[in-house]
TrEMBL record:
Residues 52-133 form the HVO-A0261-like N-terminal domain. It holds the Pfam family HVO_A0261_N. It comes from Halomicrobium mukohataei (strain ATCC 700874 / DSM 12286 / JCM 9738 / NCIMB 13541) (Haloarcula mukohataei). It comes from the Archaea. InterPro entries: ArsR-like_HTH (IPR011991), HVO_A0261-like_N (IPR057527), WH-like_DNA-bd_sf (IPR036388), WH_DNA-bd_sf (IPR036390). This is HVO-A0261-like N-terminal domain-containing protein.
Amino acid sequence: MNGINDRLSLCPTRLAYSDSDTPQYYRTLSRAVTQWRDGPIGGETVMTDPDWDDVSFVISSRYRVAAMRRLDEGPSTPSNIADDASVGLAHVSRALQELRESELVDLLVSDERKKGRVYGLTEEGDRVWQTIEAENMV
C-alpha cells in the first residue's frame, strides 16, 4: 500500500469526491480513510453499508416508504402514519407488518396489544432509510 488510492481501493464504503486537487478534497479523503481505518472520529457514528435488497424492498412500495418516512421522525401508530401520508390504514398496517418481518421496523409495545400499537425503526431500518434519502431514491 503506497498511497491514498491503494488505501481507498480497500475502503468498504463509496466516497463522493471531485477530481480536482483542492485542499477540501484531500481533507475529505483523509477523514474518510481515517474513519475507515481507525473507526469513529470525535464520537461520530460510522454508518455501514445497508443491505441493498432492503433498500429495494422499501422503495418498491409507496406505503412502506410512507411508513419509513414517518418513523424516521420518531415512533408512531399505524393510524398516525396513515393520516400523515393520506393513505388507507389497511395499506399502512400491511406495510408495517412487511417491514417488521424484514426487521426494519419493530413493534414497541406487546404483541397482545391490538389498538394503539406503536412502531419504531430498527438500527437496520434507520440505516436503510438514511441511504434512501441520501441517494434521493424517493
